[in-house]
Amino acid sequence: MRCAASLLGQALAGIAEDRAALERAVAYQPERGLAGHRERLAAWMTRLGMPVAPEAFVITAGGQHGIDLTLRALTRPGERIAADALTYPGLIGAARQAHLKTLAVPLDDAGMDMEALARLCAQQPPRLVYVTPDQNNPTGAVLSEDRRERLAALARQHEFWILEDGVQYLPEASAAPRSSGWPRSAPCSPSAPPRCWRAGCASAPCGCPRRCRSRWVRRCAPRAGWCRP
Ligand SMILES: Cc1ncc(COP(=O)(O)O)c(C=O)c1O
Predict the structure, then answer these.
(1) Tell me: the pLDDT tens digits for 12-69?
(2) C-alpha 158 – ligand 1 centre gap (Å)
(3) How far apart, in whole angstroms, are the C-alpha atoms of residue 52 and residue 217?
(4) Domain range annotation of the chain
(5) Mutation test of ligand 1: which of 88, 132, 143 has the most ligand atoms closer than 8 Å to its C-beta?
(6) Is 133 in the pocket of ligand 1 (CB under 6 A)?
(7) Could you name the CATH architecture of 31-224?
(8) Residues 94, 69: Cα–Cα separation, whole Å
(9) 145/126 Cα distance (integer angstroms)
(10) Which pTM does this prediction carry?
(11) Cis bond leading into 125, ω under 30°?
(12) Which of 1, 56, 189, 207 is the most exposed place for a label (fewest CB within 10 A)?
């Protein structure tokens, strides 16, 4: 496999030789990211068993940016979100910046304890639940199939968002991720190597109505416009 630096060098050399591509690369970019990129991502997600329309994507500068945008689009300051008791520290930082209270849900080898989440919801449902179903950071726990089903059921019952962090999905992965077919409002960061070229995307939930999807994209897009090609 060629190293990331040589792939990046080759791509940049290709752009430098193509005047139209160079002009496109240095121009202001659409807030949501280039249509071509969003179409490629939509095709990739569809191949993975998660059909998402190109217009449901916002291209981000990596997974952390996707988390930040999604929290700010879907929550208001002062609201409560829930996450695994041991979770990605970037989530905690983004939640603090958005003035959200993060509730810790116990977890074990099969991921988040859904009975504990159910008890928490019975008191007062959080606005959003953050999960890294295919690999918790830092424990590595993988959310079991039955807990995924339970999470989806709880989300429907208590009307909270699921923020699925799919930072570990690889663009070339051939197997469908285990989470296909459940609701998602995912910052999904295909930021596999080359990580120096930080890119990611956030997608609106698969099955959500068109009006809700447009509202989500409208809220994210102005904050995503960091003008990168
Ligand atoms: C679970 C998780 N989400 C998000 C990120 C951030 O991704 P990025 O480096 O693309 O911003 C990381 C980085 O380690 C991570 O472990």
Answers:
(1) 888 888 888 888 778 888 888 888 888 988 888 888 777 888 888 888 888 888 899 8
(2) 28
(3) 13
(4) 31-224
(5) 88
(6) no
(7) 3-Layer(aba) Sandwich (3.40)
(8) 9
(9) 22
(10) 0.80
(11) no
(12) 1
